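Example record

Each entry pairs one chain with its bound ligand, magnesium ion.
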Amino acid sequence: MTWTVPMVAHTLLDAENRRQDLGRFTDEWAELDLDVAYQIQDETLARRIMRGEHIIGVKLGLTSRAKQQRMGVDAPLTAWLTDAMALGSGAPVPLDSLIHPRVEPEIVFVLGRPLAGPGVTATSALAAVAAVHAGIEVIDSRYRDFRFRLADVVADNASSGRVVAGSVALPPQGLDLALEPCVLHVNGEVVHTATGAAVQGHPAEALALAANTLAGRGITMEEGWCVYTGGLTDAVPLAAGDQIVAEFGHLGSVTVTGE
Ligand code: OOG
Ligand code: MG
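Structure tokens for the complex follow.
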């Protein structure tokens, strides 16, 4: 089968809407490289915008060793977040609109001014941050059993599902985000622990990476955008009745429940 950018974009969004998982496109389409994959990702964004969604920010994926090792992909990536993906803190996750959701704890930045590469460092990136939040991402790959190569997952908007930011908002000054601890609880049991250093050595390194790589596609991150810097730990499955809490040291905690 010969695929095109619009065909793959349509197929991915259709799979999302119908909650049907897919095989990997890289098995069928040899030309699907990283450039084409980001074109597909941008095409899915254009279609989301056409149906009334708007950009609220970006997410990084596969920024920690824990995530890279589990998913078998060894490079970070960026993807889009829209308002349709945002859940209120404490709101139940609508399992009947997702395929096979998994939950991961993340550190979230909200930008106080635009941020554009190239040449952004962790220090200059952090200077653009207005607030830091605890966060949870509910990922949901459109690929069967989360089996994908880098180009597949980039095309699939990095398994985007839902995002939740905690209500505590702290200025970055005075926080040591490399040392910020995170404990992930599932139904009262601790399942994973990490510190902010799990993500690229420091979450601000991930923010700089996003600014610099997006600049390669002519994209500036805007004031007010949120940036999810990537799962600090491996993700855990979310089933009906589950309560998952990401508890941080200074950033408070975020809870999601499967419903
Ligand atoms: C890809 C998305 C990864 C993260 O934070 O690392 C991601 C996946 O694991 O399905 O969102
Ligand atoms: Mg994530």
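Residues 34-50 form the longest helix (17 residues).
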